[in-house]
Amino acid sequence: MSFDWANYSNITPEEYAAKADKFRNKNIFGRIFAEVKDNYHHATAWGNVCDQMAEALEKETQDQMQYVMEIEDLQQEIEKVYQDSEKEAGKLSEKISTLQEKENNGTITEEEKQELQTYLNSYMGVFEEADTEAGKINSNIKSVKSKAVDTEDKIATAQEWGRKTKEAGENVLNSELLEAAENSTKITKTKDGVTTSWSFTQGAEQGIAQAENLFDKVSEFQKNENIFKK
Question: Cα(185)–Cα(85) distance, rounded to whole angstroms?
């Protein structure tokens, strides 16, 4: 199942975390070191969203490469259209030159005059047909490019969630209450069925790393996207 960007573009990180924040801060135990705890939980929860966004952008970057190949194939089709038209025009040009020489020295027949006019009309038609065919292929190229660059909302959403996640992690690390919170609260983390000790610091650092990874994916995605805006 593809990542649903709309779910996260239509809601702020704060709105996403509001219900959990309210639950944590309802009782006195939740209010102790609330600043550190809220930022910690934000960094970890939003960091998981950052991971999902990073994975989605990585896949879409791979899709961009597919679009590049599609565009290259279509551009080669255009080149072939014009190459074929030049070959056809070359053959017609030879026939036209032969008949025009006859016309100039007065040895051309009535039938050949008709042939000459037909070749002249066809000569112009070759380039018109090539331009028409190339125009159709260019429309297909524009369509592919449109799919590749219709991503502004995704980029803005990823940048906002990454920024908020990094900010929450830094708030934990820069809090004057961090040391006291670490000493008074035991945290564990379970991954792949294994539970280990954990800390506010580790959670904050993880969130920052997840945000930075997302920024890298956004940067790579934007760099590739610029190919399609030319």
Answer: 78
For residues 16 and 97, give the distance between their C-alpha atoms in angstroms, rounded to a whole number: 77
pLDDT confidence tier of residue 54, bands split at 50, 70 and 90:
very high
Query: Average of pLDDT values for 10-20?
Result: 91
Alpha helix segments (H runs only) across 106-199: 110-149, 152-173, 178-184
Count Cβ atoms within 10 A of the Cβ of residue 197 and give its class: 0-12 exposed, 13-18 middle, 19 or more buried. exposed
* Token digits of residue 18: 């509001």
Q: Round to whole Å and give the CA distance between 178 and 161.
A: 23
In the chain, the DSSP E strands lie at 187-191, 194-198
Q: Give pLDDT, residue 177.
A: 94
Start-to-end CA span in the chain (Å): 31
The vertex-127 CA angle with 125 and 132, nearest 5°, equals: 90
Question: What mean pLDDT is predicted for residues 136-159?
Answer: 84
For residue 226, what pLDDT is reported?
A: 66
Average pLDDT, the chain: 90
**Can you give the pLDDT at residue 25?**
74
Answer yes or no: are the C-beta atoms of 102 and 42 closer than 8 Å: no
d(CA 153, CA 157): 6
CA dihedral of residues 32, 38, 41, 43 (deg, nearest 10): -140
